[in-house]
Specification:
single chain; about 725 residues; alpha+beta; Methanol Dehydrogenase, Chain A; Rossmann fold; 8-stranded mixed beta sheet; 5-stranded antiparallel beta sheet; 12 helices; about 15% helix; about 35% strand; disordered N terminus
Length: about 725
């Protein structure tokens, strides 16, 4: 009977124009993926931008206003003594007299990399290697006057002075797996999204940096195979929940005196310094700290000359402080911005430089989700908010003194913005549920100057292929009160009189969002070709619905999120076209964890589940992420036990496929190994598939195609 249905479904698909006709490979090959644009780096005045040519052989200066090229700062074919044809990236000095380009990029962790850098003197049109050091360089930063460049090599900071054609070593204690100067360790990069903690003072006299001592952080090692006769091991410092954290301190190097001093900034044991930034005054270095529990944020103004630090801002929270709020601090000559949740939603606040609260700039029952730019001349703040709906984003500007917001984004849907320096121009990326991303350039008043990418051909391919459209839905949460946002996807020509198997796609982690009014055609659309219905529901704890909604999972990760997926499955199973006995669930990373918890707490509502790279016990995961939401195992042992998929393994119901990369440096393969051990002890049947030497993304070669084919075949077999 099943085969007859599939055959009839295929015939109907060919005969009906509205039917879907695409393959998994079409999706993974990018046929329906919206294109972006090449990176545009703003000039110091915000009126121009730099971009590479198509072949990555030149750095060209363009006018935002006209879009026309006005200068070529660097060209490999014309620069004197240039020994290479192409490069991979670049950095332009504030005065545009120097260009730094790099080649032979070597990835370290998710974001960080080292490379061989070359320095180009624009006036002399001359190229040379940045340094004679044999080791590659990291995180270069120009001084404000463009006469110096600081960078890191072998965990030590170096300083190049262009006018004197010299370089000197600032630190000498750097050592792999022990001391890092100016760069960050694995956990800072992964969880704070920062790779450089190295800044010049506005007067070019001091170089501030964070020194990280990870000597006592436990080392994690895993085997790497790579077709070798004798496998190697990869080792790095990875602090797991409750274990030793890296020790950090902020230091300043006096460039003229060549002396280094440590700033007197209070920091609790195991605390963090996720960001440092100079204000407009060279005597004020803002050192931003979080305690280990991450429920108190302190910002100190430290004087590089005296090393004395003064507490300027303290923000305390019953739950935790979102570390992304530290990125919303922008300094004006007499005040600064900061986003806080002190009224129950994330809103913008204005403080004087003494730390006095001047005003709350935005208010209402919605979240400000980003504050990318402030114009210091007009005192205009540019921000993004989920004000119309948690599913949407709009771009606004507001004058600090006048306080009246103006919407800059042209269309309802999902808008994001990236600004030129001082907010002179911004690039708006807009899409909605059914429209591929449109990228446009606007001035500071929101006036559109031109469209940079409309993806019209992608929209046409979507229409021609009959790609089904998502529909927004709401479903009840497990508390019986809260309504959750979701979407549902049905095959073309769905027969309402038939019962279809359902697969629920989810992630569910704190402050995440999978259900939004934006365009995305991903692998799950291939499930429609096999006669599945697909749905996605954002449970309690997800983003853009205020602090109470997103933080109610605090200290108890895994329970409410899983129960919401279970309740959503039961609700959707009552729809007339859904077979409630054939419901599956899928997730990756936190989503994989949610699969295991949902199948263990769902009393059999899920017949099949696929968990990719899942967390299985929070004791195995890193300090920064885990303790932000759970505190340490020593503080919250019961919460860790309640949220442990390993401890719930004997409650698992349904057919399970575990997938993991053996070289996952984020969610270690250990998670799957220990969960498998628990399932075996509980005599629970399951399947495991491993990707040799693949990291958390399981990407490259044929990996993604193989993975999704495996997932689809598993669901066809079990549902």
């Amino acid at each position: 009977m099943r085969k007859i249905f599939v055959l009839l479904f295929g015939i109907a698909s060919m005969m009906t124009l509205q039917a879907q006709h695409y393959t998994l490979q079409d999706i993974l090959g990018g046929k329906f993926s919206a294109r972006g644009i090449k990176p545009m780096e703003s000039s110091a005045d915000g009126l121009y931008y730099y971009q590479t040519d198509a072949a990555n052989t030149a750095v060209i200066k363009f006018s935002y206003a006209s879009g026309k090229a006005v200068d070529t700062l660097f060209n490999t074919r014309k620069a004197r003594e240039c020994t290479f044809d192409t490069f991979e990236g670049f950095l332009v000095s504030p005065d545009e007299k120097r260009v730094l380009v790099y080649r032979d990029r070597e990835q370290i962790y998710r974001h960080s990399f080292k490379a061989t850098y070359y320095y180009h003197d624009v006036r002399r049109n001359l190229v040379r290697k940045l340094t004679d050091n044999e080791s590659k360089q990291m995180v270069p930063v120009f001084s404000p006057d463009s006469k110096m460049l600081a960078y890191v090599c072998d965990n030590n900071i170096w300083l190049a002075k262009f006018d004197f054609d010299t370089e000197s070593q600032v630190t000498k204690d750097g050592e792999t797996h022990k001391i890092l100067n100016g760069t960050t360790c694995w956990v800072y990069e992964e969880e704070f999204g920062v790779t450089r903690l190295l800044e010049f003072s506005p007067d070019n006299k001091f170089l501030a940096y964070v020194r990280t001592d990870e000597s006592e952080v436990p080392q994690y090692r895993f085997q790497t195979f790579n077709g070798q006769l004798y496998p190697d091991f990869y080792a790095y410092k990875y602090p797991k929940a409750g274990e030793k954290n890296p020790q950090v301190e902020c230091r300043v190097f006096n460039i003229e005196a060549k002396t280094t001093r440590t700033l007197d900034v209070p920091l609790e044991e195991g605390g963090y310094i996720p960001r440092i930034a100079f204000t407009n005054s060279p005597d004020q270095l803002a050192v931003m700290t979080l305690n280990r529990d991450q429920n108190r944020f302190d910002m100190y103004f430290a004087n590089p000359r005296t090393t004395i630090a003064k507490l300027i801002l303290r923000d305390e929270n019953t739950y935790y402080i979102d570390s992304d709020f530290l990125k919303t601090i922008h300094f004006l000559p007499d005040r600064f911005t900061y986003v806080s949740e002190k009224d129950g939603y994330s809103h913008i606040y204005i403080y004087g430089l003494t730390g006095t609260l001047q005003k709350q700039l935005t208010s209402g029952s919605y979240d400000v989700t980003d504050l990318p730019m402030v114009d210091p001349q007009t005192h205009t703040v540019f921000y993004v908010a989920a004000d119309e709906s948690p599913l949407r984003r709009n771009v606004y500007k507001i004058n600090i003194d006048k306080g009246r917001p103006e919407k800059l984004s042209p269309k309802p849907g999902y808008n994001t913005a990236s600004f030129s320096k001082n907010g002179k121009y911004f690039i708006n990326r807009w899409s909605d549920l059914h429209t591929p991303t449109v990228i446009s350039l606007h001035d500071a008043n929101g006036k559109m100057i031109r469209t940079l990418e409309d993806n019209a051909d992608v929209a046409q391919r979507v229409a021609e292929a009959g790609v089904p459209k998502k529909e927004f839905i709401t479903v009840p949460a497990a508390d019986g009160i809260t309504q959750l946002n979701g979407w549902i996807l049905k095959p073309a020509n769905v027969d309402p009189s038939k019962k279809y198997p359902l697969i629920m796609i989810q992630y569910g982690g704190p402050n995440s969002q999978q259900v939004a009014d934006c365009y995305e055609v991903d692998w799950e659309y291939a499930l429609l070709n096999e006669g599945f219905v697909v749905a996605c529901v954002d449970g309690r704890g997800t983003a853009a619905r205020g602090e109470e909604f997103r933080k109610q999972i605090y200290l108890n990760l895994g329970t409410k999120e899983a129960d919401d997926q279970v309740m959503a499955a039961r609700h959707l199973g009552n729809l007339p076209y859904i077979d409630k006995n054939c419901i599956g669930i899928w997730g990756w990373s936190y989503g994989g964890y949610n699969v295991l918890m949902s199948m263990s707490r769902g009393n059999g509502v899920f017949k099949a589940g696929v968990a990719i790279a899942p967390v299985t016990d929070w004791r195995f995961y890193d300090t920064v992420y885990t303790e932000r939401y759970m505190r340490t195992p020593q503080q919250n042992s019961q919460g860790y036990d309640n949220g442990s998929a390993v401890k719930l393994a004997d409650k698992l119901q349904g057919n399970l496929l575990l997938i993991h990369g053996t070289a996952d440096d984020n969610v270690h393969f250990q998670h799957t190994i220990e969960y498998a051990r628990a399932l075996i002890a509980a005599d629970k049947p399951f399947e495991v598939f491993v990707f040799p030497d693949k990291d958390h993304s399981i990407y490259g070669g044929n990996a993604r195609t193989y993975l999704y084919k495996k997932v689809i075949d598993f669901y066809k077999k079990n549902l």
